[in-house]
Amino acid sequence: MRVTLDYGRTGLPVELPDDCVVGPLAIRPAEPLADPDGAIAGALAHPIGTPPLAQVARGRRNACILICDVTRPVPNRLILPPLLRTLEEQGIARRDILILIATGLHRPNEGAELEEMVGPEIARDYRIENHHGKALDEHDYLGTTPNGVPVYLDSRYVRADLKITTGLIEPHLMAGYSGGRKVICPGIAALETVKVWHGPKFLEHPRAECGILDGNPVHEENTRIAQMAGCDFIVNVCIDGRRRILWVGAGDMIRAWQEGVRFVEGVVKVPVPQPCDVVVTSCAGYPLDTTFYQAVKGLTGALPVVKQGGTIVLAASLSEGVGSPEFQHLIADNPDLKLFKQRILGKDYFRMDQWQLEELAKVVAKCKVKVVTDGLSAEALRRCFVEPAATVEQAVADSLAEYGPGARVAVIPKGPYVLPYVA
């Protein structure tokens, strides 16, 4: 069987043995919107749970629009023009509109990268700034939640007269699904907030999983935090494997997002009859697979359908390496993941990005991981608690030899865009 895995900007064709493959596990067929521009305009004019954007914007002095950073393939070039046009038509001057990139704790997006995200015209003509999660003085303190999370959110958004968020709804390894409230927390939250919300108290909860919302404390808490900040209007989309818009919704932060979640659940959930010995997957290609930090999402997405003691084979470009300096130092400081787990469950240890290593620890506690990449050396991969592999074909052949006759291989070309489960 010849399958192309999402890998970087080009994809990675691989040959897998026909007689033992389950899948490919793929997003269910859904027709992309024939007129996405018209659909977005229609969503702004006929939103879910709020008046039309034109009415919401009327009389406002200024506006802050949150957009996702480069790690999320949101079609900003389609979403932003009608949104911005509506604000200006309602009397908000262009100089009073801020597009704020919700980087969370990721690096800033600037230059050519920014132009690719929003288009050269918007990059040139509008004020666009990055959130800086480690600069506490750029955040307002809104109080502490009943669960003990101190809420510090970007002052530029908190103090805006009109608050708008945009985003993409897809499965998320901790919060169930992305989109909606998530662009506020962690998107514009300070490190002081994220380190508690992404702490073991929340992440070790059995419901803090991909595709789960009911009883998920990560989802419930960042919804509470987003409500503390306020949001006047959202625009969210769902996309297919070719990043075409399948659904667009706008309006109330919770009601519009919930409709999107209902849609995406019907598209991304894919059953398998039983766990597989080997799962071949990706991290959905560029921009999601540029770092090992992000690629962990491809591993957690495959976890529900791999056997205990099985193997996940991940193909990811890792063109920007391991991840942030903090993540690299975290890995270097914790060569033993069992001791790392003991550390974070204590009271006196915290390092930025520890939540992603915590998720990786869950993966390697269940199965082996083999990684195929052009972006990191074999030695660097071993330091990341995974095995290097020259090719996907070789990694699969070695694994099948280990597990013997009857071993099954599931393949998920688009990685975490698909939500596999054992039926």
Helix and strand arrangement:
Elements: E1 2-5, E2 12-15, E3 21-22, H1 36-45, H2 53-57, E4 63-68, H3 76-89, E5 97-102, H4 111-118, H5 120-125, E6 127-130, E7 139-144, E8 150-154, H6 155-158, E9 162-168, E10 171-172, E11 176-177, H7 191-197, H8 200-203, H9 217-229, E12 233-239, E13 245-251, H10 255-268, E14 269-272, E15 276-282, H11 292-302, E16 306-315, H12 325-333, H13 337-345, H14 354-366, E17 368-372, H15 378-383, E18 387-388, H16 392-403, E19 409-412, E20 419-422
Parallel strand pairs: 3-19, 4-5, 4-9, 5-6, 9-12, 14-20, 15-16, 15-19, 16-17, 17-18
Antiparallel strand pairs: 1-2, 7-8, 10-11, 12-13
Helix pairs in contact: 1-3, 11-14, 13-14
Please explain how this structure is put together.
The chain is α/β, with parallel strands linked by helices and 423 residues long. Helix content is 34%, strand content 23%. A six-stranded parallel sheet has the order 3-19-15-16-17-18, with helices on both faces. It has a six-stranded mixed sheet with strand order 6-5-4-9-12-13, with helices on both faces. A two-stranded antiparallel ribbon has the order 1-2. It is globular and about 70 Å long. The two termini are 24 Å apart. The mean pLDDT is 96.
**Structural class label:** alpha/beta
Number of helices: 16
Proportion in helices: 25-40%
Q: In this structure, how is the largest beta sheet organized?
A: 6 strands, parallel
Radius of gyration: 21 Å
Task: Give the averaged pLDDT, no decimals.
Answer: 96
Strand order, sheet with most strands? 3-19-15-16-17-18
